[in-house]
């Protein structure tokens, strides 16, 4: 059985994550591998305060960063003439204020 925290107590929590994926392709019979195609990092700390027996209030912060590595091949009708590498980075931030109700 879970019990709510006592009145006047602080609480903390959150999550952290990392994801990495690769990509493989075949162009004009040649296999190519992109081991770092997408990389995602997230960090979401949470903290709050138990106001009374039934109510808690708090704050959650959010951070996320995504790196996308792309390989674009320059191909004529038969041969691969070369390639270009592209890298895009996307970052986001967030803040959430919350109130929780604990039922008895």
Q: What would you say about this model in short?
A:
The chain is mainly beta. The chain contains no helices and four strands.
Verbal overview:
- The chain is mostly beta strands and 104 residues long.
- It has one domain.
- The protein is built from no helices and 4 strands.
- It has strands at residues 10-27, 30-50, 55-75, 80-101.
- β3 (55-75) and β4 (80-101) form a beta hairpin.
- The chain is rod-shaped and about 75 Å long.
Write out key terms for the chains shown.
104 residues, 0% helix, single chain, 4 strands
Share of helical residues: under 10%
* Strand order across the largest sheet: 1-2-3-4
Overall body shape? rod-shaped
- Overall mean pLDDT: 83
**Unreliable stretches, pLDDT < 50, 5 or more residues?**
none
Tally of separate domains: 1
Number of strands: 4
Major beta sheet summary: 4 strands, antiparallel
Ends distance? 11 Å
Could you say which structural class the secondary elements and strand pairing correspond to? mainly beta
Share in β-strands? over 45%
Our count of helices gives 0
Radius of gyration: 23 Å
SSE topology string: EEEE
